[in-house]
Specification:
Blueprint lengths: L2 E5 L5 E5 L4 E2 L6 H11 L8 E8 L5 H13 L1 E8 L6 H4 L4 H4 L6 H9 L5 E5 L2 E6 L12 E6 L13 H10 E9 L4 H9 L3 E6 L6 E6 L2
Parallel strand pairs: 4-5, 4-8, 5-7, 8-9
Antiparallel strand pairs: 1-2, 2-3, 6-7, 9-11, 10-11
Helix pairs in contact: 1-2, 6-7
């Protein structure tokens, strides 16, 4: 499928899949979306502790990068598992501008290392941040009671409805520890009902720029 780099409304870039008319991040602001959905509504629930995170859709690494930045502010030790079926090509990553837009030059090497480090291994990116990348289909996850927080950042249900089903969310429910949290940019009624059907307590929250709502799910 044809892909191109586009600039989103907040100045940060993302990858646009032309054939699907779908982006890796919101065209209304890639960085803004990450902060609103995954950081403000997810990571900020934790402070002064160790946190295990699963990202479903590692993609450009933007969510992991901002998590690293925020973890230092919140005194968090992070173990971050990123799952991605189709890793982003190096030539595409080189065109993204997250480091400059975030004024994060101090960790530019760490961000580069996130993409260059081995898959299927625990890798120390920096003190207090361990990354474990897995290249696999989201439907092949087999985690049990392993994570405090899930960033569910798959492509939208319009183009990949198979990733937003009860079976997928049962896998997510099983992967979370008790009182674990899942956050996603989606607010579709079918997604909320699928989450509720497998046992999640689901709440609607105000969405990021360009979206009225998003969803946060709690494992009781």
């Amino acid at each position: 499928m044809r892909r191109e780099i586009i600039t989103t409304a907040d100045g940060s870039k993302t990858i646009h899949i032309v054939d699907w008319n779908e982006q890796y991040h919101s065209k209304h602001g890639a960085i803004q979306e990450t902060y609103h959905v995954f950081i403000k509504s997810g990571l900020h629930l934790f402070e002064n502790r160790s946190v295990t995170i699963l990202e479903v859709g590692f993609g450009t690494g933007l969510n992991a990068l901002i998590t690293l930045l925020e973890a230092k502010k919140q005194n968090l030790e992070i173990t971050y598992t990123g799952v991605e079926a189709y890793p982003v090509a190096t030539e595409e990553l080189e065109q993204l501008n997250y480091i400059s837009e975030l004024n994060a030059g101090a960790i530019a090497k760490e961000f580069q290392f996130m993409h260059q480090c081995k898959w299927d291994s625990d890798v120390l990116v920096t003190e207090g941040f361990v990354l474990h990348k897995q290249q696999k289909d989201f439907r092949d996850l087999g985690f049990e009671n392993s994570f405090d927080l899930i960033y569910f950042d798959a492509f939208g249900a319009r183009v990949q409805p198979e990733l937003w089903t009860e079976n997928i969310f049962l896998s997510m429910f099983n992967a979370l520890s008790k009182k674990g949290v899942l956050v996603t940019y989606s607010a579709k009624g079918s997604v909320r009902r699928a989450m509720q059907a497998v046992g999640f307590a689901v709440e609607r929250l105000p969405g990021p720029p360009g979206k009225r709502e998003m969803l946060r799910a709690l494992k009781p």
